């Protein structure tokens, strides 16, 4: 038996940073998929091949570590499964542009597919698309990230679609399925360089510790905008959503100045200039510092003109929504 699993990446529309303090985040699962496959080894060794983006292969005895932290987090906690000799692969190459990560949640998607494939292959229940499944995956992903991260990228990989994600202290993460207003189209632009989300979040946490009053005020503003934008989605109000996205993008630039980190880079500012010229809304998507930005508009012609202009200098990445989330399939010969 071979087990195959796929899961999508993500784009963040609203809620970066503020989601860590309970604000909602509006997140799109997108059709760049990470894939895992797991089956029996043809000999007494385990074989692991990864694509991130280049192929790498390692061979090791059952019960030993592969040397890849994300894989070992899953397999190392399973004493029974560690007796097995297996052959597996994890392919996250679609999360890269050439050799550079796009910043659409590659580690979250890779963890999701590997944990799901491992669970089924070793005879356990499939990871469920519910609160229990989400919490187990977020716990593993936070361990991989030294305790940081909101879990929104894991939620997008697990559930798919358009979601509103929120951390609720009393009951854990909350995920609600929604749809963007019908008239809103989107695209994304890659700045050409990757950002370190971990470093940006560390700077953010240091700022909150050093200047708690200022941080509380700034995060309250961000949270209020995110609430307004998510309310607009529920009300199918495209104009109010775009107003919230514009305001949130501006506040992220201020946040970067406050924490001493370049959330909105010179590249993002230049792309935002193109967007303004064509009447398109644009902001960074995710922690910033590079990676991707998201552009939205109710005018398809304006969005097309923006893409044509910005493509001269930057990489336009047209994603579609992934409406499935995690998918697991068992194959028998």
Radius of gyration: 20 Å
| Helix/strand order | EEEEHEEEHHHEEEHHHHEEHEE
* Assigned CATH architecture of the largest domain: 2-Layer Sandwich
Shape: globular
The fraction of residues in strands falls at 25-35%
Oligomeric state as shown: single chain
**What count of structural domains?**
2
Q: Helix count? A: 9
Strand count, sense and closure of the main sheet?
Answer: 8 strands, mixed
Helix content: 25-40%
Query: Runs with pLDDT <50, length 5+?
Result: none
- Alpha-carbon distance between the termini? 7 Å
Descriptive notes:
This protein is of the alpha+beta class and 333 residues long. It has two domains: 189 residues, Ribosomal Protein S5, domain 2 (2-Layer Sandwich); 133 residues, 2-Layer Sandwich (Alpha-Beta Plaits), CATH 3.30.70. Helix content is 38%, strand content 27%. Strands 1, 2, 3, 4, 5, 8, 9 and 14 form an eight-stranded mixed β-sheet that branches. A hairpin with a 3-residue loop joins strand 3 and strand 4. Helix 6 packs antiparallel against helix 7.
């Amino acid at each position: 038996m071979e087990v195959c699993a796929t899961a999508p990446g993500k784009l963040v529309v609203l809620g970066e940073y503020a989601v860590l303090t309970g604000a909602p985040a509006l997140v799109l699962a997108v059709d760049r998929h990470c894939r895992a496959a797991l089956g029996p080894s043809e000999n007494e060794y385990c074989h692991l091949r990864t694509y991130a983006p280049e192929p790498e292969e390692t061979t090791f005895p059952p019960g030993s570590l592969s040397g890849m932290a994300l894989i070992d987090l899953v397999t190392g906690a399973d004493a029974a499964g560690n007796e097995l000799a297996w052959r597996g692969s994890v392919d996250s190459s679609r999360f890269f542009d050439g050799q550079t990560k796009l910043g659409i949640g590659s580690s979250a998607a890779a963890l999701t597919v590997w944990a799901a494939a491992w669970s089924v292959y070793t005879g356990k229940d499939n990871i469920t698309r519910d609160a229990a499944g989400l919490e187990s995956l977020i716990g593993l992903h936070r361990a991989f990230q030294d305790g940081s991260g909101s879990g929104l990228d894991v939620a997008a990989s697990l559930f798919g679609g358009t979601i509103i994600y929120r951390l609720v202290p009393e009951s854990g993460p909350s995920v609600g399925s929604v749809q963007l207003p019908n008239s809103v189209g989107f695209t994304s632009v890659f700045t050409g360089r990757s950002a370190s989300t971990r470093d940006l979040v560390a700077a953010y946490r240091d700022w909150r510790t050093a200047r708690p009053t200022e941080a509380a005020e700034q995060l309250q503003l961000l949270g209020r905008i995110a609430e307004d934008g998510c309310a607009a989605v529920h009300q199918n109000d495209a104009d109010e959503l775009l107003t919230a996205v514009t305001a949130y993008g501006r506040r992220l630039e201020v946040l970067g100045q406050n924490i001493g980190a370049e959330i909105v880079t010179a590249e993002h500012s230049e792309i935002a200039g193109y967007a303004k010229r064509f009447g398109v809304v644009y902001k960074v998507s995710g922690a910033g510092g590079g990676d991707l930005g998201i552009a939205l508009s109710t005018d398809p012609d304006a969005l097309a003109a923006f893409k044509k202009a910005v493509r001269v200098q930057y990489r336009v990445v047209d994603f579609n929504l992934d409406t499935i989330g995690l998918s697991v399939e068992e194959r028998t010969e």
